[in-house]
Each structure stands twice: as C-alpha cells, then as structure tokens.
Amino acid sequence: MSNLDTRPDVVVCGGRRDVPAEPAHEVLPGRMVPLGESTMVRRLLPTLGRRLVGAWCFLDHYGPDDIADRPGMQVAPHPHTGLQTVSWLLAGTVAHRDSLGNEQVLAPGELGLMTAGHGIAHSEQSPVSHPALLHGAQLWVALPERYREVAPAFDHHPDLPVVTDRGLAATVLLGTLAGATSPGTTYSPLVGADLTLDAGADVRLPLEPDFEYAVLSASGSAEIDATALAPGALMYLGTDRGEVRLRTDAGARLLLLGGEPFDEQIVMWWNFVGRSGDEIVAYREEWNTGDRFGVVHGYQGDRLIAPALPAVPLKPRGRTR
C-alpha cells in the first residue's frame, strides 16, 4: 500500500528513549487520508505522539466500505525500500502484483507479506468482480540495518495458526502469541494478531514483558484493561506487561501489534525507509528515472511518480513529536 500524500512528512524515529518502561493506555489520534482513486483510510501510524510500535512503523485501517458499485481499491505501481508490507483483509479481496512477477488475490484470513529489502514495486487493486464490502489493514515493518538490503520477496500464507480461549479467537499474522507461531518471515522480535471477541467475552491474553504493544479496534467496542476503545481507534499499551485484559459486550475485532522497541533511527518518507536524508533522495531519483525497482507487469495504467521532496533537509525528529 502506498502513502499517497502529495506532501508527505519526513519521519525519523527509533531508539528506546521515548518508550515508557511501564504499561500505558494512550489513545492515539488518526487522520483520514485518500488512498488511490476511491478509498479513504485512517492513518494511525505514524501519528501525532507515536511513530513506532516495535518495528511496526505504518498502519492504515480502511473500511468497512460498500464498494458494490465502485471500483474499490485502486493503487497504482509504487516503490518500497527497507521494510516489509503486511496486507490483512477483514472483508473483500485485493489483487497484488509486483515487479518480481508475483500475482496473488488476497482474501480474508490470508497473509500477504512483501519484503521490500533492496527495492521492489507493487500495485494493489480490487478485482473487477469483487465482494460488496472492503475492510482491512495495511502495515509496514521497518527492517533492521542488518537486513534492510535483503533481496525482495513476496509470500502468501493462506493458513495461519489460531489461538482460542473462552470467546476469543486470535489469528497470528506474524511472530508468536500464546505458543502459536506464524509461518511469516520476520527480521526482528515482533508479533501481530487478529483478535475476534464474541459478545460477552472477558479474557486475559499473555504478552511479552520486553515488548511494547498497541491495539486497534477494527470493529465493535471493547475495553482494554477496563479502558474503553472505540471502533477505528488505536491504543498504545506501553511495555512491562505479562498480560492484557480484553472485554466486550457486543463483540469486537481487534488488531494487536507488538515488538521489542526498535533501537535504530530510521528516516521514513513517502514509501521509503532509509537511514539518512541522502538515501531517501537517491531512492526517489532511482524510482522516478526507472532504476532499482523493476516494472509491475499486468497493471493497466501509469505508475505513481514520487512527490517533491521537502524544501528543508531531512532531519531527525525522534519517536514522538
């Protein structure tokens, strides 16, 4: 998924300095931004107040949208470096194409995991014939220095482990949760899980004390440690937790993100993750001139062109504003 802002912010973040060494219940503000030709998304990471949760550096939540008579998601080919993209659908279908020649229609419950590494380009579209509803999340994971130049790859995992407990069904997207491990490849200690809570559920989910965590309410209202979380909101939970209590009256769908606080400083601009402003300038030039990222074949239309760089130098601004 692309950051389609025509004037994207420069985000430099990382390190443990701004990670609270204790549990928290911090509701983070999101903002509505356009994605492609006809989709609006809630951008929840990076956001005012927090830029990373572990290595998770980007989170868009979209829908549920009625696209029965609309084209749905239409995101033209665009580049990525230094990250992994995680595509997760709650309703609908999305067709992935990339410059390695991969083509895959993703459906709910299936993990689409793309490792950009040195550089890759891809497009995302609702198929011509598609379900009436579109609902999901798109996430990025920053790659640590040791792995950020790995060869690009795309993996499709249709079968993921599920943890169940008294009205809870937790599908593990990445990492390990309650002893269940996703087949998805990770390059730093992290976890991502889709939590379905039945009406009246009241459970305690085990967590890793060394991780920091956040929870997105994708649908329905829930209480996180007795603190209300409204649909579409993201709550940062801090660190030093052995468990989290989840409760709902009418049922809810949550997305749990966590990981060891990311030690490294990164620069994120448009669809690139790098380590310096000079790297970002070079990535932009290589994309606009046709180098490095390859071609997405099979997409009918023009690729995206990188927007203009900011007038000021790309400087660090820390994990939080």
TrEMBL record:
UniProt cofactor note: Binds 1 Fe cation per subunit.
Residues that coordinate or bind Fe cation: 78, 80, 122, 124
Pfam family, one: Pirin
InterPro entries with a match to the protein in the record: Pirin, Pirin_C_dom, Pirin_N_dom, RmlC-like_jellyroll, RmlC_Cupin_sf
GO molecular function: metal ion binding
Pirin C-terminal domain residues: 193-293
Keyword field: Iron, Metal-binding
Cofactor(s) the protein requires to work: Fe cation
Pirin N-terminal domain: residues covered: 43-141
PANTHER family documented for this protein: PIRIN (PTHR13903:SF8), PIRIN-RELATED (PTHR13903)
Family (UniProt): Belongs to the pirin family.
Protein name in UniProt: Pirin family protein
Taxon lineage: Bacteria, Bacillati, Actinomycetota, Actinomycetes, Micromonosporales
